[in-house]
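User: Can you help me understand a structure? I only have the sequence.
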Amino acid sequence: MKIERQKRMEGTTITGIIENAGYHFTNVEIYQDGLIGAWNLEDLNSMKTRLQEPSLQVVTEVPLGKELSIFGLGSYTILSANWAHTPASYLELIKSKVAELNPRLENLYTFSEEERALWKARKRVPSAKSKVYHEIPGWFYDTEVGETVPFFFKKNGENYLVQVAVFKSGLVQVACSAFEWTLDIAEVKTRFQAGDFFTEFQEPLVVHLGELGVVTIGNQEYPYPIALEDKIEELFMAHERLNGKDRFQICRDAYYQYLVYPEDFYREELRKAYLAIPEHERMYLGDMDSRDGDYQRILFSDEKREV
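Assistant: Let's start by predicting it. Here is the structure, written out as tokens:
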């Protein structure tokens, strides 16, 4: 009989870039045992290699004229940049974060050759399933996990890429490397519609990308901007999901109900559930190939599907 166990490991994040058929912004996860999540899970030794190897490379800058993809916001052309790190200094930054989490550098984990051979045999790559959390005030050390949504944010005339985390209790954290503050979910629409939070821009935008530096970005030739209202709704969806109400699952349930009973009543229920999901999120109703194609067929065409 095989068994397994899981161990809680606390950490922090810094901003990073993965080069893999393009340049992808990511949050590099750093844990107190010295492991680093940068799509794949690395130790300090293999992270040094990741900053140099040609495949799934961790890089510290994007060439001018190339696109940087920021998942959940868009893809942007790098027009100019003041990058803060070389690969060597970025590795030192990671080491310093490990030292902050684990001042004595005790029990740092290093992957063995046997482990790597086992991954190869099982055709798998280790990764960390991290969750953002905050401490709940009280006598004991209690925590609450949440979900994050990215936004652009303007503060004192400067633009920042921030992560907005929402928790089950309704606490909302706005954070980047320069600042962090909290508000309540009830304040979100008012605060977010005041003009400081945004997802779209017309002119080139100078923006702080955390530890990576400051860049000037422009929209793609054929942009597909996400409206601020939809991003705010995405945050509310995350809060609902943490409290047991998943709009995706509600819509999928309505979809299957209609397939079983293809009547006008169930089609209208499906329409309501579908439209309750922000437009940029609807693609996640299906798999990578189907996306929300069959939902659109049912709701917006007379096409019949063979079953």
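Now, to help you interpret it: The CA atoms of residues 240 and 246 lie 6 Å apart. The longest strand covers residues 142-155. Let me know which part you'd like to focus on.
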